[in-house]
Amino acid sequence: MTENRGRHSGVWIVAEQREGKVRSVSYELLNWGRGLADGRKAPLSALLFGRDLDEEEVLSLIRRGADRVYLVDDPAFEHFLAEPYGRALTWLIERFRPEIVLAAATTTGRTIMPLAAARLRAGLTADCTELALDGESGDLLQTRPAIGGNILATIRTPRARPQMATVRPRSRAQASEDESRQGTVVRVDLPEACRLSPVRFEGFVPDRSQERPLEDADIIVAGGRGLKKGDNFSLVRDVARALGGEVGASRDAVDQGWIDYPHQIGLSGKTVAPRLYMACGISGSIQHLAGMQTAEVIVAVNRDPEAPIFNVADFAIVGDLFDVLPALRERLETRRRRP
């Protein structure tokens, strides 16, 4: 077990890229990491996997707070595959021995961080909404929703190193860019064993029902069991389109086959934190609330005035969604047509 605290130092974030472009969640992680690194008086490093990455994309991590970028530029990492990414992350941690490693609570982070933590026998806290340092020990204090979001638990790893956590996207603003910042790019050559995978990438089929991933959406309109049947999801799609947003769903709606799993939000789906979240016909089970309650503004439409969703809503519309949504869509379209 990696228990020697004194031999680990520095804060790492696992940056993400898609089609050669660094994802915005990487800049959110840099904002988290910069504060922790300053608190520990340690360097902040970013780890980036990819192939033939543009130099400006790599340097953007330094301009936004990283002191060092560990760059793995290799054909084996052009596309995300769990096994080589997990092996590589484990090898890099064992070689450079950071004290704290952060990743986003995205598909990538939720996949490779547990793989590495298990192999390293390190502590891992998933889906954190707050990170801080203990004033006496310097331990990482990792706060995350528990019991379906009803309480917040603060977790620490007092012995095992590194301390590892995934952080909920949109839980902090992106780090601002400073053109004057200087840093170092370290190109890392990995052992052949890190490139091995029992899975071969054949191709990527995008979900044409979404303009962008739910995790990146600023506006989400979600439907639940109150829609009564799959055809009625057209009401949700119409409002989402009028608002320039994406469509989400509760687990009930997905289980009924009304909409595909990539739209599912909650503990068993995706965690989102948009600027606006509109819940239509969703009662508000604790599992669903855990996936969306950190949205900046929550609007809920439900016939039941006692629905749990209203406990977290900023704006509550008690009414029949079959009346409310068409009226809202018409109002939005009328407003958009105004000169």
UniProtKB/TrEMBL annotation:
CDD domains: ETF_alpha. One of its GO terms (biological process) is fatty acid beta-oxidation using acyl-CoA dehydrogenase. Its cofactor is FAD. Keywords: Electron transport, FAD, Flavoprotein, Transport. Binds 1 FAD per dimer. SMART domains: ETF. FAD binds at residues 225, 250-251, 264-268, 281-288, 302. Belongs to the ETF alpha-subunit/FixB family. This is Electron transfer flavoprotein subunit alpha/FixB family protein. It comes from Aminithiophilus ramosus.
